[in-house]
Write a structure and sequence with these properties.
single chain, about 800 residues, alpha+beta, about 50% helix
């Protein structure tokens, strides 16, 4: 019976709360929109944080999975280890842990639609068992499939099976060709399976041959592996770590002098090893979201305090008619929860919009396995946030409303000086807190916007407009006994140059902004320097400078006369000249690359270009002519024997060429595997994606904080003018002019904002440290950014204060006194 009575009281309070809120539509709409901003961005961020930090990995008992980290005598860390180390780990920890390992490579897969370059993970046969994963169709690897002659079996990813083989269930036990070698398909991986160790999700899995593992040493694709450890139930990770470290310590003692080898092992949870790089960014975003949420709650709490003060007579009458303090508190909390519930619905829509708008940037900046979809856990968190929000801004106003007695309020016509002063101080305190919290957000937004602007103004050294890019891979088995440049690259390049809309085209082993792995080489002793000369070496066709718009500082670039029968030549960049020649003339200098038997002559110097990323400075670089690299040359295979990057400069918009280029290349040479076709503009944009995302998100947060704070200041001053109407009327009746009244209102606004800005300055020095790794071209304590943030807030604050100040100055003294 008591439960039924309680429910009836709640329903009665709900109906009353709905009537009260409907009577004040301006207040209700303002409160709901303010809270919706705070709840919406908090929900959107929670979806991201949940996907990165909290969502369980798609494995059985993921908390038991760890990743070994090797630490050497210089405290440097690495995640890849030779097979001999992993084999001894497996023996030492076989009672307490399972250890699997993988190696990532690229291979060419023949599909019904043509050759396709795919990511191939060679793995130990116990990988799926260690991860606790079963194929959706078929089976996993068997232990005997690690032996030679039985290892030509393959697992396909769900996406590859669905897209390249039309989800054909009869493909099991059929053969597909990887680099021209037949592999029997034994299974299809689950659709939501993501292998987390590699940035790009692999499409095929093949077993590693034990015979090749045992003979691997250096320079082999199977030389280093990425291990995963599953600690058995009941075993302690620290015990497993001690066993692995003991083995590694013995191996380090037997290592040759100068060998870089880990001396101990630290087990890091698989989840932590994957998200460690993005955790600082998410922490900064969490703080920003919490600050905006606090501002929103403080703002609505201030609105409720002002509204409750206007309802003091109503509250006093209810107290006089027998309503207890608990009943008054409950009534006001019901109103607060109704406001937060309506705000949660609006915030959910805002969160979905934000996630959809930023999906591309998020997917580029965060681990590829992260999902940004709403699920039951996220909806549960939204309900919890809704309750927390309702309590956060509702408890204090409700408690204050229920504290005053009925007699004093009724006797003074609803005015209680002591209560007025208390509520006024609380509203002032809330506003000061809002301003103090807004300053770090505005300063952070200024720092990130300045960073993006600095990145956009970086002189890349090449043009980005009207350039289409793609990666090409040839199956090595088809060109094993032929010069791939003559047989494949040059015919393709000539065909592309003849296409309508193409201005020029070029091939290079590496194109700017990180399109391929850099190949580092060391030059032997030279007569023109006493230090060891090293640089990043790449092969290129003669038209590369024309396509990219790179300027020559001295000499020339490659021409069609630089053939395999002519004198070997090379081109270097300015950084090379500065570092090894002190800025002196490099043209004519000669050197040998590593094991090359022939001497190359420098014939040109290029302007520095940003190769790795926009924010990464140039390194010493060597360019070699593709036509001069013969199959006998040690640099032939890594430079151009398997993959090349194609750059095409177009007359028209490059987006028009993107869908056609891949099709045209396949028609010319169906054996070539074509990678993603994109534009140089998009590549550069993706390079600054992390900073751009941070600038957009924090800038949005700063704008929201500014908007909410200004609305709060306007509401506070408007209410203060209403409450002080009689006082202002008396002042004006006694001779105060309108200018003095306006100064009085503006002075109170300046005092509150000044105090909040001072506190905000102090806190911003701490919060800006979280952004330090994202900044470029600006320091975290830039005084101009700090002053600008305060100036923007003051400017908008003055605009918000002028309206109520003007209203106060226009009060008619006689009308105000008659009303009182």
């Amino acid at each position: 019976m008591n439960n039924l009575s309680f429910l009836e009281d709640i329903l009665r309070d709900t109906r009353l709360a709905l009537r009260q809120l409907s009577k004040a539509p301006g207040f209700t709409v303002t409160a709901v929109l303010t809270l919706a901003l705070g709840i919406g961005i908090a929900t959107a961020l929670f979806v991201v944080v949940y996907g990165v930090l909290l969502q369980p990995l798609p494995f059985s008992h993921p908390h038991q999975l760890y990743r070994p980290v090797g630490i050497d005598t210089k405290a440097q860390e690495n995640f890849a280890f030779p097979y001999i180390s992993i084999e001894q780990w497996q023996e030492a920890a076989k009672q307490s842990a399972q250890i699997a390992f993988t190696a990532e490579t690229k291979t060419v897969l023949d599909t019904p639609s043509g050759a396709q370059q795919v990511g191939n993970v060679g793995s130990s046969t116990n990988l799926l068992a260690t991860l606790g994963v079963q194929p959706m169709l078929g089976r996993g690897f068997l232990p005997e499939e690690a032996e030679g002659g039985k290892s030509h079996v393959v697992l396909l990813s769900y996406s590859l099976w669905y897209q390249a083989f039309s989800a054909d269930r009869h493909i099991l036990q059929k053969s597909v060709f990887l680099d021209g070698v037949p592999y029997s398909v034994i299974g299809i991986m689950p659709p939501r399976f993501h292998y987390p160790l590699y940035e790009n999700q692999p499409e095929v899995w093949t077993p590693l041959e034990r015979s090749r593992l045992l003979t691997s040493s250096t320079g082999n694709v199977y030389d280093r592996f990425d291990p995963v450890v599953r600690v058995e139930a009941g075993a302690r990770p620290s015990t497993v770590q001690e066993k692995l470290s003991s083995v590694q310590g013995r191996m380090a003692q037997m290592a040759k002098p100068g060998d870089e080898i880990a001396t101990r092992i630290r087990l890091t949870s698989l989840r932590e090893s994957l998200v460690g790089d993005v955790r600082p960014a998410l922490t900064a975003l969490e703080i920003a979201v919490a600050l905006v949420w606090l501002i929103a709650c403080s703002n609505v709490a201030g609105l409720l305090l002002a509204r409750n003060a206007a309802r003091r007579t109503e509250i006093a009458l209810r107290r006089a008619l027998g309503a207890g303090r608990l009943r008054i508190v409950r009534q006001f909390l019901v109103e607060s929860l109704l406001l937060s519930s309506a705000s949660a619905l609006a915030g959910l829509g805002l969160a979905m919009f934000v996630l959809r708008a930023f999906r591309h940037i998020l997917q580029h900046s965060l681990p590829s396995s992260v999902s940004f979809d709403l699920d039951g856990n996220i909806l549960t968190a939204l309900i919890g946030l809704n309750l927390l929000t309702g309590l956060a801004f509702g408890v204090l106003p409700a408690a204050i409303a229920a504290r005053s007695g009925p007699g004093e309020a009724l006797k003074n016509g609803g005015h209680n000086a002591s209560s007025d002063r208390t509520q006024s101080r609380l509203r002032n305190l809330l506003l000061v807190c809002e301003v103090a919290v807004s300053i770090p957000l505005l300063v952070a937004a200024g720092l990130m916007l300045r960073t993006v602007r600095s990145l956009q103004q970086v002189q890349l050294g090449f043009r980005t407009d009207h350039i289409v890019l793609t990666n090409l891979t040839v199956p090595g088995y088809l060109y094993k006994d032929r010069n791939v440049n003559v047989a494949a690259w040059q015919p393709l390049l000539e065909k592309v140059k003849q296409l309508p809309g193409v201005q020029s085209a070029a091939l290079s082993s590496v194109l700017p902004i990180g399109h391929s792995v850099e190949w580092l080489t060391v030059v032997g002793k030279t007569p023109w320097t006493e230090t060891t000369v090293w640089g990043e070496v790449r092969a290129a066709s003669p038209d590369l400078l024309q396509v990219l718009g790179v300027r020559l500082r001295a000499g020339r670039f490659f021409t069609t006369q630089d053939t395999s029968d002519s004198m070997p030549v090379a081109v270097v960049n300015q950084t090379f000249v500065k570092q090894y020649l002190g800025g002196h003339d490099a043209v004519g200098k000669q050197f040998r690359f590593g094991r090359l038997l022939t001497t190359a002559t420098i014939v040109g110097v290029l302007e520095d270009i940003h190769q790795d990323a926009v924010a990464t400075p140039s390194k010493p670089e060597f360019y070699l002519s593709m036509a001069q690299l013969k199959p006998a040359n040690p640099l032939y295979l890594p430079m151009m024997g398997r993959s090349m990057q194609l750059a095409v400069r177009t007359h028209s918009a490059p987006a028009l060429m993107v869908p056609e280029l891949g099709r045209i290349i396949r028609e010319e040479n169906p054996h070539l595997a074509v990678g993603d076709v994109t534009t140089m503009d998009q590549s550069v944009e993706d390079s600054i994606g992390n900073q751009r995302l941070a600038a957009i998100v924090i800038g949005t947060f700063g704008g929201l904080a500014l908007l909410i704070t200004v609305v709060g200041l306007y509401g506070l001053l408007t209410y203060a003018v209403t409450q002080r109407t009689r006082e202002i009327g008396i002042r004006m009746a006694l001779g105060a002019d309108r200018r003095r009244v306006m100064r009085m209102i503006l002075r109170s606004a300046f005092v509150l904002m000044g105090l909040g800005i001072a506190i905000g300055f102090v806190s911003s020095f701490w919060t800006n440290r979280l952004l330090q790794s994202f900044l470029f071209g600006v320091t975290k304590d830039d005084p101009w950014i700090l002053v600008s943030g305060a100036a923007v807030l003051l400017l908008f604050g003055i605009c918000a204060a002028l309206i109520p100040a003007g209203r106060a100055a226009s009060i008619d003294p006689m009308q105000a006194l008659r009303t009182e």
